[in-house]
Amino acid sequence: MARVASGFESSPSGPADHHLSLPLDHHDKKNPFNLHDDDERECRTGNVWTATAHVITAVIGSGVLSLAWSIAQLGWIAGPPILLAFAFVTYYTSILLADCYRAPDPTTGSRNYTYMDAVRAYLGGKRTTTWICGFVQYVNLIGTAIGYTITASISMVAIKRSNCFHVEGNDAPCHVSNNLYMALFGAFQLFLSMIPNFQRLWWLSIVAAIMSFAYSSIGLALSVGKTIERRVVSGTAFGYVASSSIEKTWLVFQALGNIAFAYSFSMILIEIQDTLRAPPTENKTMKKASLRGIIVTTSYYMSVGCVGYAALGNQAPGDLLTGFGFHNPYWLIDIGNICIAVHLIGAYQVFCQPLFAFVEAWAVQKWPKSDLINHEYKIFLPFSKPFKINLFNVLWRATFVVFTTIVAMLLPFFNDIVGLLGALAFWPLTVYYPISMHIAQHHLKKWTGKWIALQGLNVGCFLVSFAAGLGSIAGIVGDLKKYAPFKMD
């Protein structure tokens, strides 16, 4: 299929399309004609700032606004320390994972383009281990995409309801359906999903990161204002007093799941690292980006979570802005919810681009001679460079967006399922695999001091993830009792 209608021109894509046939060396700033890296792929252009933006976009989801509720379940004694503990574990294991981008040497070895590639390189003797890693990673990415569709629609509905409350009073029913707003969100994603790869996504991550700071700051400002107005710090040492010890246990477990999911970005760390230029070496840049990202996000988590709890106490809602812990000033709440929706538009792409790339690379490998999969078409637009599209990529990405939108409409409580997926993914992707690959990389012997410490961290995080998973299951069971498809809020 060499030519199509006027205005389009086809060209081969797939692996061969990612580089010229020129035998060029590693990217060198002094050589403007050096267009490719040491693996003959298009030169990476990412730096510590773009990587930090990706990390912040991935970590600071709308979940930051649920942290006041999480701390309300844990109380002042346990809540803040647990937040800090998750931050430390996430940062430490991200350092270990950053060294796995290349193998066998972390600075000069062959590149691993995805998390699965890294697991295969270091733990390749166990094929099942690699496939379990891929299954957990990509199922979690799909779940996150569905959850973000729901959460963004909730924020858009909250704007409508906020204005309704302002006009008709805080006790007015103000029922609004989420479905229209889910469809709107899906329409945006249909357009943005045509961004070809993660490296071209840097500008969207920066916008999304700015939005996350904006709505987090609004939540913080509203909490500070309410605390000053009341002139008292709310909350108790042990948090919300449940009707029974069993209920309290489930709520604590759910809070752990929320916090674990709030810190999850390891599943796309390798993919972020694959956007970085060198020198300096990619692992050094990624470690700096991880440190900056975790410091920024933890500062926001601590301030928004703790101040939100201080303002609203044990009755803190699941979301400071959409849960209507605050009703006024309504225009500021509206701005906050707009920022949440814009942020999630970008975050959706940050999490979906690795999945898009995985399926497209698999298709190229499976059908190397297919014109549908291995040809790109140039669309000549006036006053701009030709725009390249691949029909398979367009069809697959559009199908995925439509699928996630429909599932979100059918299961409006899917956030609880995403919480379960997050709880299940935290231990293997954030802890187990980075630790196992580090042990293999450095040939650590069993029962040495460091090996024991790493395995202790491994077991401890497994127990936390297991407990969080149980709490999420309890939440899902409760949702199913009142579930109705396309229910009005």
Automatic annotation (TrEMBL):
GO CC, alphabetical: plasma membrane
Q: Which GO terms describe its biological process?
A: amino acid transport
Q: Name one Pfam family in it.
A: Aa_trans
Q: Is Membrane one of the keywords?
A: yes
Q: Where does the record say this protein resides? A: Cell membrane
Q: Which organism is it from?
A: Adiantum capillus-veneris
Family membership noted in the UniProt record: Belongs to the amino acid/polyamine transporter 2 family. Amino acid/auxin permease (AAAP) (TC 2.A.18.2) subfamily.
Q: Which InterPro entries match?
A: AA_transpt_TM (IPR013057)
**Where does the record place the Amino acid transporter transmembrane domain?**
45-476
Q: Tell me which domain of life the UniProt entry assigns to the organism this sequence originates from.
A: Eukaryota
Region (Disordered) residue ranges read: 1-21
Q: Which UniProt keywords apply?
A: Amino-acid transport, Cell membrane, Membrane, Transmembrane, Transmembrane helix, Transport
Q: Where are the transmembrane segments?
A: 51-76, 82-101, 135-159, 179-195, 202-224, 250-270, 291-311, 331-351, 394-411, 417-435, 456-478
- Oxidoreductase as a keyword? no
Q: Mind telling me what this protein is named?
A: Amino acid transporter transmembrane domain-containing protein
